[in-house]
């Protein structure tokens, strides 16, 4: 029988952890968007956000199905990440509709970028699924349009939302780094092995630069100072 990366127990544990954290992330994204839809100022906004929430649930189902395909219980794979992800969302609960939109675009966007970086160290099938799940499904255009329109109407909102965006980036980075550090399998995936190269200090620096540049681009798209 042909060997695959999943025959290596350490690699299998890392891939399962990655799929588990992403699955729970998508499940909570669905839950939050459905809840935020209640704050929508118009019926059109409510419908748009509900549609995006449905897309997030579809992503969760794809990740769940991949775990099942690997012979893993999806609930068990997600369980280690419930507490840290719930804590992140508790610490960054939006106070209004606009803060919720910025969180979905800026905070989740940065976390997703980090996991995309990790995905470059997994097998092609898993990596393809991760990249497909994180492909923009219309969320960016929707958020940018609504936030920019609100700032045009009331320019004072820009300062408050910029501060909120900066807080989100700090919380998101801390949360992603904490998860990677707490899960030995993910840390090992990033560090590499004899036959699977990982990140050295220079590569870590380049990754952080890419994350920062992507965050700045999102804030600029919203009309906010990073």
Automatic annotation (TrEMBL):
CDD domains referenced in this protein's UniProt entry, alphabetically: Ferritin_like
InterPro entries: Ferritin-like, Ferritin-like_SF, Ferritin_actino
Source domain of life: Bacteria
Stretches assigned to the Ferritin-like domain: 10-192
Name used for this protein in its record: Hydroxylase
């Amino acid at each position: 029988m042909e060997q695959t990366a999943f025959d290596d127990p350490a690699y299998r544990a890392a891939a399962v952890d990655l799929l588990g954290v992403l699955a729970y992330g998508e499940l909570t994204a669905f839950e939050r968007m459905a809840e935020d839809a209640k704050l929508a100022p118009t019926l059109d906004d409510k419908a748009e956000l509900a549609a995006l929430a449905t897309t997030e649930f579809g992503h969760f189902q794809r990740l769940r199905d991949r775990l099942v395909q690997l012979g893993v219980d999806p609930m068990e794979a997600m369980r280690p990440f419930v507490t840290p992800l719930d804590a992140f969302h508790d610490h960054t609960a939006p106070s209004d509709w606009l803060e919720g939109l910025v969180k979905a675009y800026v905070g989740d966007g940065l976390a997703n970028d980090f996991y995309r970086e990790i995905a470059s160290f997994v097998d092609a099938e898993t990596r393809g699924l991760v990249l497909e799940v994180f492909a923009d499904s219309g969320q960016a255009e929707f958020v940018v349009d609504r936030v920019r329109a609100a700032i045009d109407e009331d320019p004072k909102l820009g300062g408050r939302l910029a501060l909120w965006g900066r807080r989100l980036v700090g919380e998101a980075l801390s949360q992603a780094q904490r998860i990677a550090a707490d899960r030995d399998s993910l840390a090992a995936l990033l560090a590499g092995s004899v036959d699977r190269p990982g990140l050295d200090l220079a590569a870590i620096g380049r990754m952080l630069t890419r994350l920062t540049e992507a965050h700045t681009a999102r804030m600029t798209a919203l009309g906010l100072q990073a």
